[in-house]
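To the wet lab folks,

You asked to see what we're planning to order before we commit. Fair enough. Below is the target structure as tokens, and below that is the sequence we designed to fit it. If anything looks off to you, flag it before the synthesis order goes out.
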């Protein structure tokens, strides 16, 4: 029987993804070596993205046991191992694909408004605007050195994305923990130091200066007030502050004996 002369010439590689990169694979391919089929010219990036893994989440790839760049040509028969952001000392001898240090400022897609507020509450510089499209997010991230946080995996396939993370959870509090852990931000947190509305920094302001800017009850009840250098919003340690303190304590981010370092 003659073979079809127009049929593509299939090539195969075996792929093993580690840790959270498995989240992008079909269940049958997770935590195991699997075979991936492709045809034509291919690079490491095109093969791994063809398998579903966005380039922005890959931090190291071994081809036949040796580190390789994402534009490394793939001809078939190779054994690929892909790793997410590395923490393991055993892998320190390899140079990761993502430049260090990891970002501690971020830009968030339109789906992550509540996460943006929680990250700002934790003192992290977060750009969040509802009017940005994917191209503008990628551009601003590159220009300002921000990591991209997204619920849209598609954006992380773009080659221009240097640091990006697909937020797995749909629950904002879990998302906060996820991002802190993924980027190793535990020591960068400065609770209540930033405006949750506009991302501006908060400064103390004298009680006399806010008399006409806050409700009378709040003015009578509180001694310390804080103002945002961006939008002018005045904050004080009221019921919202107490409930957020409880939330941060419950999440293990703020110990019961540790008060916020600054801000309301
Ligand atoms: Zn503000």
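Sequence we intend to order:
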């Amino acid at each position: 029987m003659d073979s079809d002369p127009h049929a593509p010439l299939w090539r195969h590689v075996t792929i093993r993804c580690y840790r959270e990169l498995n989240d992008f694979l079909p269940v049958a391919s997770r935590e195991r070596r699997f075979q991936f089929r492709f045809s034509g010219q291919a690079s490491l990036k095109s093969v791994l993205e063809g398998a579903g893994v966005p380039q922005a989440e890959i931090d190291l790839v071994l081809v036949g046991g040796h580190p390789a760049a994402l534009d490394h040509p793939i001809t078939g028969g190779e054994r690929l191992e892909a790793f997410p952001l590395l923490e393991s000392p055993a892998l320190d001898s390899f140079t990761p694909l993502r430049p260090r240090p990891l970002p501690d400022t971020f830009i968030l897609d339109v789906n992550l408004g509540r996460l943006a507020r929680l990250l700002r509450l934790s003192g992290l510089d977060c750009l969040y605007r509802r009017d940005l499209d994917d191209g503008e997010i990628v551009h601003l991230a590159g220009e300002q050195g921000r990591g991209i946080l997204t619920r849209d995996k598609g954006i992380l396939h773009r080659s221009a994305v240097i640091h990006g993370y697909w937020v797995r959870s749909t629950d904002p509090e879990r998302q906060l923990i996820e991002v802190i852990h993924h980027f190793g931000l535990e020591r960068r947190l400065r609770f209540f130091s930033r405006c949750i509305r506009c991302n501006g920094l908060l400064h103390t302001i004298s009680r006399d200066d806010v008399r006409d800017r806050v409700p009378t009850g709040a003015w009578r009840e509180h001694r310390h007030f804080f103002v945002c250098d961006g939008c002018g919003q005045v904050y004080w340690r009221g019921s919202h502050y107490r409930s957020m303190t409880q939330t941060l304590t419950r999440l293990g981010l703020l110990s019961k004996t540790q008060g916020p370092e600054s801000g309301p």
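Structural context that might help your review: The two ends are 79 Å apart (CA to CA). Residues 10-91 form a domain with the Ubiquitin-like (UB roll) fold (CATH 3.10.20.30).

Thanks,
Computational group
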